[in-house]
Amino acid sequence: MTVCMAPCPIVFDLDGTLIDSAPDIHACVNAVLRQHDHPALTLQQVRSFIGGGVDILWQKIIHALGLPADSQRDLVASFMARYHAATALTRLFPGVTDALGVLADRGHPLGICTNKPLVPTRAILDHFGIASVFSCIVGGDSLPEKKPDPAPLRLAFEQLGADPRSPQGLYVGDSEFDASCAAAVPVPFLIYSRGYRQTPLEKLTWQAQFDDFTALPDLVEAGAPA
Ligand SMILES: O=C(O)COP(=O)(O)O
Ligand SMILES: [Mg+2]
Fold first, then answer.
1. Which CATH number belongs to the domain containing residue 119 in this structure?
2. 70 catalytic, yes or no?
3. Is the distance from the beta carbon of residue 188 to the nearest atom of ligand 1 less than 6 Å?
4. Catalytic residues (predicted)?
């Protein structure tokens, strides 16, 4: 099945797809927990809580540690103060910069649709020098709705010049939130299998999967089996 023939718009998720940001998010989470006299979490725990945005991250932390639900507001406020510039421990996944360059050179309009808030999203894209490759950036606080609601991804495609309700494009992501969001738009979904997904690949809906960004440009151009 052909996934994308012409230079169609391609929208990317961020955390767990283009960047391995879990170490920075983990460090910020534990600094906040320490500040509020709560026990620390492991990197693996925090990684498994990423994907739904900051509020869901903290709902899961509060649940895991048995903290009072009404502590969320203060914890999120402390977290956001640190999260805005958390770049030191984050890495691009291998091959990302080259793959984005190839796709941009081939004429694909590129965008970001992430549940990460806009300020840390822009900070991390600037940190890695890749902000200018994206013609649109939709963050977790750009709209009232977050993925898996289709609204943010539709907005990204609209900003890239596509029909938001039936975009001739692709979404590239790593998580359950991304798979459900792409299906709701609807738009074909390419899943990066080394991200933060908690569900087996075969239980999610996707048109193609890849574990190496060097393979992405050819996957986009040549198509892939569904
Ligand atoms: O911030 C999150 O929880 C998830 O961000 P993502 O949508 O880029 O994966
Ligand atoms: Mg993600």
1. 3.40.50.1000
2. no
3. no
4. 13 (nucleophile)
